[in-house]
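Batch job 17 of 40 flagged for manual review because the log was empty.
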Amino acid sequence: MQPTLVVLVATEEEFDWTGPFDRGATSVRAASELPVGQRLFDEFGVRATWLCDYPIASQAASLEPLREVLAGGRAELGAHLHPWVTPPFDEELTRANSFPGNLPEELERAKLESITRVLEENVGRRPRIYQAGRYGFGPRTAKLLVELGYQVDASSCPAFDFRSEGGPDFTHARREPFFHPEAKSLLVVPVTGAFIGFLGERAPHWYSRISQPTWARMRLPALFARARAVERLRLSPEGFEFEDLKRLTLALSARGQRVFTFTFHSPSLMRGGSSYVQSDADLRRFLERCRRYFDFFLGEFGGRSLSPLALRDEFAARPLPRPT
């Protein structure tokens, strides 16, 4: 299979990622910059997916630029669920409840119905691609998604563990797409993340040890990364440099991986919209990392770009790759 790039943008409100969850934090000023991202995708022929949450889907200020980037079939529409700003508001505001898969089944269903309905009503398309906010995929999520007509889930985040906050553990999750074993029509397209380095299969164990507070204060993870012993990388321009993204891609390609998922959050398209982009210089560097990576993947690396739905069609027509 030709190396294939899937691009996902978590299209959401701006909020303080380090602060308490706030139902009133629904500013969508950064949505005005969605066309900036779409022009970048158009430059490389990338058919990205804008995964929209409730504040984006329900406010005129964000709907206008969203409709613009979706015009002409240049991009896909998906749904993104932040429970704390998605009605009905029947749950307590806690860190654990920020992972939608932790909610009671009927409440998770109601919130999924809410974001699905508002997107269909305001954008004119029913989303078929989903990503849980904070990667909060739960034991009932797959069944609920299929019942609502979703065909692709992009909530799995290999190599990352959110148990300390009450979320799921993806440390050993499969990295290649696969059809969900219990909801067989649902293609799971994981976010691309992995442990790389010469420690090989022992990397997750060592990363867990050196990330403990005592060792983290001594900057042991940075020392191990600098020595190329173990690094935990995600295919994202947020917090990672182009060289990191290229190194991750080549390492996973050597292991036989052929589908790569590139992700970021829409507020990073605006200066001050996220912690990763605080200045005009940050924004220029952010966009340049994206541009360099697309140029590398679609050029030197010999790859192509597909939407998640097109990828699902291909996977449905061919044998699945071995689990990784």
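Reviewer: the log was empty due to a logging misconfiguration, but the result itself is present. The mean pLDDT is 93. Unflagging and moving on to job 18.
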